[in-house]
Write a structure and sequence with these properties.
The complex is a heterodimer.
Chain A (H helix, E strand, L loop, with lengths): L1 H17 L1 H25 L7 H33 L2 H5 L5 H31 L10 H25 L3 H16 L10 H6 L3 H11 L11 H30 L6
Chain B lengths: L2 E11 L5 E12 L4 E5 L6 H8 L7 E6 L2 E2 L4 H6 L1 E4 L12 H10 L5 H14 L15 H12 L6 E5 L7 H16 L4 E5 L3 H7 L2 E6 L2 E7 H9 L2 E6 L5 H9 L3 E4 L2 E5 L6 H8 L4 E6 L4 H11 L12
Parallel strand pairs in B: 3-8, 3-9, 6-7, 7-8
Antiparallel strand pairs in B: 1-2, 1-4, 4-5, 9-10, 11-13, 11-14, 12-13
Helix pairs in contact in B: 3-4, 3-5
Classes of the chains: A mainly alpha, B alpha/beta.
Chain lengths: ~260, ~325
Amino acid sequence: MLHALRAEWRREWVQLRRYPTELLSELAVIVLVFYGLFLGGSYMAGGSILGGRLSDIIVGYTLWTLSMMSVGTMGWTISNEAQNGTLEQVFLSPYGATFILLLRNVAGVVIGLLFTILTLFSVMAITGHYLFVSLWDIIPGLLMIASATGLGYLVASVTILMKRSQQLLNLLQFILLFLIMLPTASLGGPWRWLAIVAPFSPVVALLRSMMTHGAALFGTGNWLLWSVVNAVLWLLIGLLVFGLAQKKARRRGNLSHY
Amino acid sequence: MLLEVDGLVKRYRTKDRQVVEAVKGIRFSLAAGTILAFLGPNGAGKTTTIKMIAGLVRPDDGDVAVEGHSLSAASGQALRRLGAVLEGSRNLYWRLTPLENFEYWGGIRGLSRKMARERGRELMREFGLEDKIGSTVQQLSRGMQQQVAICAALIHSPALLLLDEPTLGLDLDASDRIQEYVQRLAHERGMGILLTTHQMEVAQTLADRISIIQSGVLTLEGLKEDVLARFTGSSYVFELAEAPSAGARQLADQLGAAWTGEQEFRVVLDRPTDVYDIMRALEPCPVVRVMRETADLATVFRAHTRQSVPVQSGREAMA
């Protein structure tokens, strides 16, 4: 399995390196966004946003982009590989398509994270403003990406059956953004379940209490526990639905018809 | 046995909710070191069958076993023993070089990078393409791309290779190279090869065994020599002094003529006296020569698919 992960990693890396203009344009977009966040943030807050709040914005933005990447990568992979005529070969892997898609997602997230870190250091060096991000932030980040991967499998399931996922992805972005903005943590009664079950909700509450209120990772009430439950739940739902969707596509005989 | 196909059934639901049985209980086996040409007209069920063998289409009934590993019960083990080059697919990443493709396809089949590279180099050397190993696939000719796709399908040294129209649209040189290589794979290295093609001359050159599928049923199966011999006594070649009229040609076509030139065709006849029916159809075009000859696969295929109406499934239909 390690060989498969390495193969996936190399494939991503070689494709990036082979077309430097694409690589540079991707980097340029990230640099511009971060530069905008640094400068724009301090301008809007009259110069006082630097420090903790800016770190929150940067961490939040990075997690959001990586999560959205995880939500979209697998569906995009399926439609792209089908159009390029390589999807069937991916499905011929003895490890199974579910695992290969997961590896591709992991490789994508790691490369995305490396880009982000590299860019952040460059922007910090240029602006002279330095961020202090706690290593504990990584844990909620990983949980968020795990939930996003589960959603990614759901998008991949729709793609493999309906052959289209772009509209769903657009819609999903808005729904997820709404769920993140909604202060579900402060909801009471039966609505409290929404804060636990809705994708990203508990992990956003966890991050909010850590970043805004300065709480420690293990001192956020039950939000860490609910975040783990939420991530596992959405990952399992995604895996289950994708397994069923694969079976159905094979039964229909239209795995690679696009 | 290397490949056991046991009673495969596939039904599809059409848009108007009717159920169409595309494959009806197909049953055959393939021994190591054998090339089986799996032939049939368009829509007969060839591609559905080959995709069921590869696990890409799920059968409604029946199973496939590769070296004893059931595709439904142990798909990972079965897929480790199987390689496929599928028609209508590129089968490769065009932005990568052949070597990078081998690393990737080998990796997701459990090979280390070193092993995939070594094996890939060896395969490219066998095709005489070692100098192309560093070019991106999109820079290669169509023939070379197909040869690289075959190398990629062989990267994990499978025991069974599925080839769906491997020489379609290739120039003579590339087609010859592939045919020669496929024969070596089977006859020198003991690999089992299941080949589908509409190019009867390719099937005739390569195949050890012939299977013909029609409307989802195997209607003919046997050793190539036996199949050809069965039709040889009734195969005739007609040579005409001039090209016949369109009407005469159409009548001859209806009687199963396989034209090899403007003034020459082959035909398999049920009875020797059917020669006169052909002569009448061609009238008034002068006939220069009529000769009984050894049947070729194209003529056999044409005659068989014209004559047989598939009503049975499995081996009963093949007797």
